[in-house]
Write a structure and sequence with these properties.
Helix content is about 50%, strand content about 15%. The chain has about 280 residues and is an alpha/beta fold. The protein has a 7-stranded parallel beta sheet with strand order 3-2-1-4-5-6-7, with helices on both faces. The structure holds hexanoyl-coenzyme A and NADP nicotinamide-adenine-dinucleotide phosphate (NAP).
Length: about 280
């Protein structure tokens, strides 16, 4: 559905862009004409992703950075700008997460996730925003990757739920505060998209089938589906979308809150027969 050049002239930085959903978005943005910079802590996945983008004819660069450290973010953004030109789009995708009963969390464990997801998103957003504000000609887009439990809450991932809720608030707050500087903010809230990073930390045996059963579509998301949505939202085609959150979860979060939602996943003929049998006899 996209014109080949829909992101031509754009310079996008993706945090956590060497793996999983960040990598899928980076490749998609490059495919549609953007110059793409990626950051993360480990150099290997960054190098490999940039190699894949450049092999496909795109202009791309990486810089190693830890989003928990504002100096490290600043230095990395400088390095990317020297190679790609002024950044105009930031994708806050880097995250940390793990499953734990809340009563067993150490203070350091809570902080580990908050520092990456909430503080890290703040450091990247503030550094990026200052660059746009300092340059009157520059416009900016910030896309935050949150999750549906940012507003639903979720057991066993409490630090992540709190941090993502904070990021959600950041999107809405800055959509208003920084619109005057030509910036807009959007939030994509994925449901389950199996990736190595997420599955290795969050999947328990048997959860796959349960996860599919509690999804109206009966399946998980595909990274390209999220990358397409992100491409649209950062493109100029979406220039009047500001402060919005777009769930991409097959409708999972709705089903969880709908008392009779699970019935929609049962065999429809059987269900109709049962409902017919329950009708009052005439
Ligand atoms: C309890 C844990 C823990 C676990 C670590 N800790 N893992 N506590 N259960 N599984 C505790 C440690 O004991 C330590 O506390 C503290 O957390 C910090 O641990 P470190 O290993 O030193 O942290 P660090 O090296 O900073 O690594 C951060 C991390 C790690 C979050 C723990 O997993 C990471 O680097 N993750 C990055 C990638 C990632 O998580 N991807 C998944 C995103 S998926 P003490 O007290 O012992 O010092 C996602 C999906 C959301 O977000 C939605 C799904 C539907
Ligand atoms: P992932 O592959 O583990 O991605 C996380 C990325 O963040 C990694 O590339 C990691 O690289 C980077 N990162 C972590 N800590 C960092 C730090 N301190 N500084 C810089 N980079 C850091 O997991 P994913 O599934 O693709 O998740 C991507 C995003 O989607 C996250 O925001 C996640 O919360 C969200 N999400 C995922 C799902 C899902 O089902 N997969 C669902 C909802 C939301 P390094 O470790 O090398 O730094």
């Amino acid at each position: 559905m996209f014109a080949e050049n829909v992101l031509a002239g754009r310079v996008v930085v993706v945090t956590g862009g060497g793996t999983g959903l960040g990598r899928a978005m980076a490749l998609h943005f490059a495919r549609y004409g953007a110059k793409v910079g990626i950051i993360g802590r480990r150099t290997e996945p960054l190098e490999a992703t940039v190699a894949d983008m450049t092999a496909a004819g795109a202009v791309a660069a990486w810089a190693s950075a830890d989003v928990r450290d504002p100096e490290s973010v600043h230095t990395a953004f400088d390095a990317l700008e020297s190679k790609l030109g002024p950044l105009d789009t930031l994708i806050n995708n880097a995250a940390g997460n793990f499953l734990s009963p809340t009563e067993d969390l150490s203070p350091n464990a809570f902080n580990a996730v908050i520092d990456i997801v909430l503080r890290g998103t703040f450091h990247c957003t503030q550094d990026f925003g200052r660059r746009v504000i300092a340059d009157e000609a520059r416009r900016g887009v910030v896309l935050n990757i949150t999750t549906t439990y940012a507003w639903m809450g979720s057991p066993f991932v409490l630090p992540s739920a709190c941090a993502k809720a904070g990021v959600h608030a950041m999107t809405k707050s800055l959509a208003v505060e920084w619109a005057t500087y030509g910036m807009r903010f959007v939030d994509v809230a994925p449901g389950p998209f199996p990736t190595e990073g997420a599955s290795s930390r969050l999947a328990v045996p048997g959860m796959d089938q349960l996860g599919k059963d509690q999804n109206p579509t009966g399946r998980f998301g595909k990274p390209e589906e999220l990358a397409s949505l992100a491409t649209y939202l950062i493109s100029d085609q979406a220039s009047y979308i500001n402060g919005a959150t777009v769930p991409i979860d097959g409708g999972e979060w709705l089903l969880a809150g709908q008392s009779f939602g699970l019935l929609a996943r049962m065999d429809r003929d059987n269900l109709k027969q049962m409902m017919t049998a329950m009708r009052p006899k005439k």
